[in-house]
Structures are given as C-alpha cells and as structure tokens.
C-alpha cells in the first residue's frame, strides 16, 4: 500500500486541468519576458529585415530558451538562489554587456557610413548560416541578463510546479518563445521596404542603444 501511494498521488496531480494550468503558466510567464526589446530580439529582427537565415535564428532562440528554462527548473535557479555572490556577478555582468551593446549601437547610429549602417560588426558581411548563428549565440550565451530571465526567474517559477508538471511548464514556455519569434519574423518581413533607407537603420540603432541603456539601468537598480 505504501509503495503505491506516490504513484497514486502523481496520477491524480497529472489531470487535464493541472496540465493545462502548468502549460498556460509557462506560456504566459515566458511570453511576458521574451516579448520585449532586448539584444537578442533586435539581432533577430535585423536578420529578418536582411532576409538571412531567419528559420535558423528562430530555431536557435526557441531551443536556447527551452534549454535554459529547463536548467532553471531542474535546479539551477535554486543553486543561484543559495549563492547571492554568483547572482550578483550575473547582474553586474548583465549591466556591462547591455552598456557595451548600447554603446556599439549608438556608434553605428551616429558615425557608421551609409554603406555599412546595415552591416554586421566591423562592416563585414556575414557569410552563411554559421556566421549568423555564431553572432546570435554570442548575444544569447554571453549575456548574463539572459540567465537572470530564463534560468533564475522563469526557472524558479517552473520549479514550483508539482512533479512532472514542471516539464509541462517548460513546454509551455518553449511554445511562448516560438510564438514570439515567429511573430517577430513576420513583423520584420513587412518592414523590409522601410529599411531600404539607411536612415531607418540609424533610427533602429539609436532606439536599440536607448533600450540597452534603460535595461542596464533596470538591472543595476536590481543589483
């Protein structure tokens, strides 16, 4: 009788209502965080407007979000919660990353020649899917602010789900990421005509710089 008790409990918890509630929780929490103007989103938007390997970019973003959230649900969020020093280093690293990204965007907006204003870093054209995904991987994995959102915040919320419902939460979060980046790619496709003018790229870079500085200030206040 005692050995069967945990199985009965898990089976009762895994009801259609519980599954849908966990999925909706993962979807709404993740969507509310990814549907913002951040370094990763702006990089993807730039590739969409250029028409360069959009599907690969979306696939990378969804897979990386799902993996990082799953790591947080599996226990990384609790580990960081028990290590305030590590969490503080992540916050300050995020501040520095966002400031650097914002300064680079402002430099492009103010001083880059028109012929290079829509080009990648250093004015070199990105060749092939590996080049595009390499830049996206750097922005995703070397930005400490990403870990604060996915591993710490979303992961800690998902870790509160009961039993196997944790992974339903992760599935809902992955669906939210897919929905957002698909929407972003469709929106960027309709903006291609607008970005035929180099001035539009300068405006985008200027707004990017302002948003990165605002995010850096927000993370700094949290630190």
UniProtKB/TrEMBL annotation:
It is a multi-pass membrane protein. The keyword Transmembrane applies. The keyword Transmembrane applies. The chain crosses the membrane at residues 20-45, 57-80, 86-104, 125-147, 167-188, 200-220. Its main location: membrane. It is found in: Cell membrane. Signal peptide: none annotated. Keywords: Cell membrane, Membrane, Transmembrane, Transmembrane helix. It comes from the Bacteria. InterPro entries: LeuE-type. This is L-lysine exporter. It comes from Comamonas faecalis. The gene is lysE.
